[in-house]
Amino acid sequence: MNKTHPQRNGDVATFDSTKSCSEERARCWPPSCTRRCACILATALLVLTATSLAVALGLLPRAPVNRFCAASNNQTGFLCDDRASCVPASQVCDRASNCRNGEDEQEELCGDLPRSFPGYLVFHCSDPAYWIYADQRCNGINDCGDCSDEMGSLAACPPCGPEWWSCTPVLYEFCSCIPRRLCRDGVQHCTTWADEYICLP
Ligand SMILES: [Ca+2]
Ligand SMILES: [Ca+2]
């Protein structure tokens, strides 16, 4: 059924309700758009403008382009969409949501580890078959299994920190330092026994 609408110049334009807006617009735009088309276009423009304004004012979250951040103890982390929360690398894709909207567990990030990871979250051990999270490098623990994450040029770790005692450990768990809390505990942890006779907790 055709409807008529009076125009400003007195002409009469017809509007076929069976036609889509795009068809109608193509026929009448510009300059004499029908009221329906003009209303739809104005609404779309209003929504677009409001959305752009909200994003510009920070009212809507935007995914950070670069999510690298420093978590506690200056460890490598993953920046959440709120641009404030920094999740330690080893908590990304651990099946527990640490970001408010769970962006640390999203499929595109966790679907094909470690290839789906950005490079800064991964440390590749000297054995190409193994990889660990970047924040497991230089944490004192033998995570690679061959100590390549704690010793040598690949890891490039700083000397033992104040919480650690430098020696060659007898336990496979450590590489070149042992935790000071193990000093003088009555159990040998260094091959030289230095942890029992020299080290002070
Ligand atoms: Ca997580
Ligand atoms: Ca380690």
Write out key terms for the chains shown.
alpha+beta, disordered N terminus, 4 helices, binds calcium ion, three-stranded antiparallel β-sheet, elongated
Description:
With about 200 residues, the protein is an alpha+beta fold. Among the domains are: about 1-55, no CATH class; about 60-135, no CATH class. It contains four helices and nine strands. A three-stranded antiparallel beta sheet has the order 3-4-5, with no helix packed on it. The longest helix is centred in the N-terminal third of the chain and has 22 residues, at about 35-55. Bound molecules: calcium ion (2 copies).
Computed CA radius of gyration, to the nearest angstrom? 31 Å
Q: Kindly, what is the distance between the CA atoms of the first and last residues, rounded to a whole number of angstroms?
A: 92 Å
Helix percent reads: 10-25%
In DSSP terms (H or I, runs of 4 or more residues), the helix count works out at 4
Strand content: 15-25%
Mean pLDDT across all amino acids = 82
Strand order of the largest sheet: 3-4-5
**Pairing-aware structural class of the strands and helices?**
alpha+beta
